Amino acid sequence: MSQVDVIIPVYNTPLLFLDEALASLRAQSFTDWTAWIINDGSADDYTDNLKHSLDALKDSRVVYLASDHKGPAGSRNVGLVEGAAPYIAFLDSDDCWLPGHLASQVARLEGDSALTLVHGHSRIIDSDSKPLRADPPIAGLNELSVRECFLRMLNHNFVNASSVVARRRALAEVSYFDGSFPCLVDKELWLRLLNRGARFYYDAEVVLFHRASAQYFQKDGPASGDTPPHHRAGSRYCEIEPDVC
Hints:
This protein has 245 residues and is α/β, with parallel strands linked by helices. The chain is built from eight helices and eight strands, in the order E-H-E-H-E-H-E-E-H-E-H-E-H-H-E-H. Strand 1 (4-10), helix 1 (15-26) and strand 2 form a beta-alpha-beta unit. Helix 5 (146-155) runs antiparallel to helix 7 (185-195).
């Protein structure tokens, strides 16, 4: 059994992006991992090309799983229930890790048994893998109490899923992702973990190149009358913290 299960859902992701994601995984200085590639009901021709691309790697640590279309939460859960490693990492199929990501995050978790989840700073890249905006690290996150993190998460998701390494036990205790939830499924999971007292640690070093989606370049917010997504993700917790809902 490997030490880290890496969960990578794929839904018609351009193979060039996936190739870059897998190259960044295979370049990790920490090598004791298993990657679960979950094909989330992609088109037939894409699936054929995906299988060929993965076969060409000839890497037994890369495991292909096929699923009907379940979306971000359900497809990740397909991989989560297949693995058994004590640590879980998430990597979106169009993002890339820096080479020391797994080594540093696993070391942090092994060095502090009170931590549930480690996440890190990211740098935005475009469709050509060129760096875009360089945001400064988030100040003060590691000084917040669990309750303060919970309140901050209600209003803003400060954890990039592709930067996360977490303890399997803690994720299993909350039944992983909620496949019935319509949006912001990672934020909803972080809220459930924090609600149970989980401690997060933020690595201010850049550990991830996060590829900007088309929505990143759009200036408009939600349509008039729409419920903002972060309110929908936090609505089930209003009885716990009514002052922030």
